[in-house]
Amino acid sequence: MKEANRNFDTFIEDIKAIKARPEISISEIPAPQKLAPYAFAITADLALDIDSEDDIATGRFVLLHDPDGQESWDGTFRCVTFVRSALDIEIQSDPMLPDVGWSWFIDALKNSGASYSQPSGTVTRVASASYGELSSHDESSEIEIRASWTADNPEELMSHVHAWLELMASAAGLAPLPEGVASLPQKR
Length: 188
Fold this sequence. Notes:
By secondary structure, the protein is of the alpha+beta class.
């Protein structure tokens, strides 16, 4: 039990020191208090222009830890994430979009080398049209990916965070960075 708690504390220190790609800014947020004895949460925003306040993607990552485990998790660590990203209107109507969104999630976990089990979630597409006083606004479309999964190996907790960051980049249409390569800030 002490080992798992130490892993959780180490994870918190590691996540506070994470270096994300320059388009992504990360902040700690209050974690849910009633889902597990231990919880930690962060949020991230992705903007193509680092000087812009216009985010094209946003997300949350929550790590839950119950040293005694929870039956529905089949483990002691559970990751919960939410990613929302703007989409082109034409892409929103593609019937394969939910399957593609889910594949981004599964691929991100595999690419990060995170061992996991019990994945579950939803992929939602949202299209908005404005009327009345807001009629000058363009139509917009977004994809929302909500997922949770059990982190099978406490030594790999950072891999799960990297998978979430890759999922955000994929949803925003950014190519994954090759290992050891940093991206340069882009202007819109």
